[in-house]
Amino acid sequence: MIRKASLLLVGTLMGAVAAVTLAQVPFRVSDEAHAAASDTYRQLNLFGDVFERVRSDYVETPDDAELIENAINGMLTSLDPHSSYMSPKSFRDMQVQTRGEFGGLGIEVTMEDGYVKVVTPIDDTPAFKAGVLGGDLITHIDGEQIQGLTLNEAVEKMRGPVKTDIVVTIRREGAGEPFDITITRDIIRIRSVRWREEGDVGYIRITQFNEQTFDGLKKGIEETSEKIGEDNLKGFIIDLRNNPGGLLDQAIAVSDAFLDRGEIVSTRGRNSDETQRYNARSGDLTDGKPVIILVNGGSASASEIVAGALQDHRRATVLGTRSFGKGSVQTIIPLGANGAIRLTTARYYTPSGTSIQAKGIQPDIESLQDLPDDMKGRATTTGEAGLRGHLESEDKDGEKEQSGSQAYVPADSKDDKQLNLALDLLRGTQVNAAFPPVGDAASAPN
């Protein structure tokens, strides 16, 4: 019996501990398998030949360990934008980040066309306060060009001692020439859930899914319910806009907080016996109060699990713009003292059996924000379908991949059309056929 320790994640943050057991079973090797193995060994010999040629003939003496690390990372990043190699330091940093406190700028990033692309700045962090926006491309760090670096190398350059400045050069659609933003590094303490009373409505914002998220949600529901009063409480707004994702177990727990029964999400790997289903337990923390979920083009992964589960079960109305479309699950596989690999191992499916990979969650009520003049040229974020080499949609229902949608949220809540529409719907001052949701609960997946 071989045992492989792994971590599951569904976003740019890393995930819940799990154990995967691989059983040794009898098998017969066909002639085709022998031929495939032989061809693979020839390719490995080719790699060895190139490696030795580089070591012996390159103009400068290369670092052997660095060559191997870059070769591994190249193999993984060629699969999709979310698979990569993590050095021992990167692996340790990831583990710290999932606990909700780490050093840095406070941005979630990916790689696109050789540049670092900002998925979203994290609320109340140095990058957020400095004006970095989702969709921005970082082309230079302290005057040094990004192109040619891996994502991990670029992220490492953005890290540094607390209270030191870093200058990032931004290329922003619709902004003309690239421009510089100076950001002061700080300890990023992520309070993943914030809440407040909006009169007779409980407003709960979830910025990411880390180890503290479900506990924060539970506390937010309890405090807002107590302050508003059960008799006066019209319902809840769960704001998942620009939430890049995080831990799978926390997405399941947050969904379960509003459901009494039924499937929340399923994950399906390459082999049919790898399918896992996650079901709700009885107990709705809101006692059935109406719920509206806010999403936009920056709502990814774990956010989409929550929105998809509550939408399919007709438990909540989803309002805003189409979500990012990251419907894949990554497994963090530790390599002992050599770090870890982050590998896409499954797609996830909403309770109705729908994969949102490269398509996203379509809101029940679409609502676009009014953009300020300086942003009218950049109304969209790329979305999963715009990432080079992304895992393709299964496209079983003929639905085409979607390239992305608006991800702007005004700083002042009085200008926030999506939030204000949600408040009006809960108070009954506006009506829409999609609220409250009607119809049968989601059917079981096929």
Uncertain stretches = 1-6, 12-30, 442-446
Number of helical elements: 9
CATH class category of the domain at 193-329 and 346-427: Alpha Beta
CATH architecture of the domain at 193-329 and 346-427: Alpha-Beta Complex
The profile of the biggest β sheet is: 7 strands, antiparallel
How would you name the CATH homologous superfamily of the domain at 193-329 and 346-427?
Answer: 2-enoyl-CoA Hydratase, Chain A, domain 1
Span of the ends, CA to CA: 32 Å
Classify the secondary structure makeup into a structural class.
alpha+beta
CATH topology of the domain at 193-329 and 346-427: 2-enoyl-CoA Hydratase, Chain A, domain 1
Q: How much helicity do the residues have?
A: 25-40%
How many strands appear in the DSSP assignment? 21
Provide the succession of SSEs: EEHHEHEEEHEEHEEEEEHEHEEEHEEEEH
